[in-house]
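User: Show me sequence and structure for the first protein, then do the same for the second.

Assistant: Starting with the first protein.
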Amino acid sequence: MSTIADLRLPAAETALATAFERAPAATFELESSVSKTRPSLWVAGVDRETADDAFVADPSVEAAELLVETDSRLLYDVTFAEETGTEILWNDLLIDGGSLLEARATDGWWQVTVRYRDRDRLCEAYDRLVDRGINADLRRVTDVTDADGRETRLTPEQQEALEAALEYGYFEIPRGVSMEELAEELGISHQALSERFRRAYETLVDAELQPASEESQLE
């Protein structure tokens, strides 16, 4: 049994507070497949000049290098100052072996999804945030049955990808392996691995919602 938690955290108390002040319409989303040493962030809802100015104004950001520009969003490689930005946030969340599944920020709030070994690890991570003075809002907690339990909704390919990611340190901060390297280990393309992760994350987050509802109705 593992535990998946959805948390809501104020940017003003965690990461990119000044960037949101300069670009309140921006959405920031962690990109998991680009760099294994620095956070890469997708920025949407603002133009390049506004995003550049927001990063420059934020004292927690040492450098922000534009990697990709599309019609709807921008991808930056971001270097944060020591003990600031997302680094300190991920340390609080992941120090006990948590795996970051998703992180995005909009309207001045971070929405993060983290997988823990059990609820005790989640409680310890939550307590660390509170002790730091962060107004953490625990929105949802889902217990997911492991593969050797009575039920799993992951496909064998998704299960293999997640197990390999844990083994090689893909979910660690900084990453122990890039998505490209992990895909090579599994003998599949980068695009195929990215799609397996996306579908697996969706399955894990939603896994217990319908069963829990059905069981409560039966009881």
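Switching to the second protein now.
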Amino acid sequence: MKYLRLRLGQSEGIIHPMHEFVASHEGYESYRLLQWNPAVGETNTMIFYAEGPPEPYAETLADVATVLEHEVVSTDGDGFYVYARERLDAGTRRLTDAFTHGSIVVMPPIDYRTDRTIGLTVVGTAASLQRALDEAPPGVDVDVRRAGQYDAGRMDAASALSERQSEALTIALERGYYETPREATVADVAQELDCAPGTAAEHLRKAEAALVHHVVGEG
């Protein structure tokens, strides 16, 4: 049983309006599909988590023609949850069909990144995974970021992180940020992430907190 960590690039005709909204407005960082109804047909029912101001998001979501029902609920922190039931248009259906056929499993969460790409992990046999790659629709560029044997413990821990947080931790580890004494600074991590040092520090802090919560069972 294998897994693939994929990055999906999308053309303008494929990207969802709410993904475009988050990518084009400052103040939004993490945007993740946490769960969805496995009986995907003409419609799909989903739970998202996003970080950023909820009011502009909710106002924009209400104007999306394919969204049949929705609710936005703020959290105590900087994020909010979204319940949405949506009618699948042709582009979304082609993308969904490629990665939800019966021989592979999509592992939540799915990351909708601010660079307009989608990060997701799929699990299955080598043949079924290759089929999913072959069936990617026009307008979707598939980049295989990682591949290997499926390990539930490691994958569960990784799912606690957003893709950006995972990138920050990987860079920090490779550069020696966690060595004693440290061989790299937050500024070094920020340079490779192409972001401000304060943003890199926030990614690392949230990633470390998420992993601690996952290990001790308080998340």
